[in-house]
Amino acid sequence: QVQLVESGGGLVQTGGSLSLSCAASTSIFTYSVDWYRQAPGKRREFVASITGDNRPFYSDSVKGRFRISRDNAENTVFLQMNSLQPEDTAVYYCHVFRDYDYWGQGTQVTVSS
Predict the structure, then answer these.
(1) How far apart are CA 99 and CA 89, in angstroms?
(2) Which residues of 47-77 are buried (b: 16+ CB within 10 A; e: fewer)?
């Protein structure tokens, strides 16, 4: 079983930055880890992913502004978010598929205009 704990969310002004962390309870260094987000009244959507061999993938909406990285020694994945916009406001979730889907509890990101 894998427990995921996100942190780093908060309130930021338009154009600001935040760095999210996703800490796993067990080793996940061979697995892809994803970030998703869900805004009020909207479906959960893919944000970014990093493979076990450190290849990043991004949604078009965040490409060039967000950067995903991982520290395998710490079983942690990071999401650096720059140039934040009000439409980035959402609860951000970390996800790993290791036999099952594992999700964290989410961390709120609010971008004020």
Answers:
(1) 31
(2) bbbbeeeeeeebeeebeeebbbebeeeebbb
Q: What gap in Å lies between CA 104 and CA 79, rounded to an integer?
A: 14
pLDDT in tens, 5-63: 999 999 999 999 999 999 999 988 899 999 999 999 999 999 999 999 999 999 999 99
Question: How far is it, in rounded angstroms, from Cα 27 to Cα 20?
Answer: 19
Q: pLDDT (tens digit, 9 = 90+) per residue, 62-84?
A: 999 999 999 988 999 999 999 99
Give whole-number Cα distances, 97 to 12, 13, 75, in Å.
31, 33, 15
Name the 3-class secondary structure at 38: strand
| In contact, 105 and 5? CB cutoff 8 Å | yes
pLDDT of the residue at 94: 97
Q: What are phi and psi of 39, to 5 degrees?
A: -90, 160
Judge whether 104 and 93 are in contact, CB under 8 Å. Answer: yes
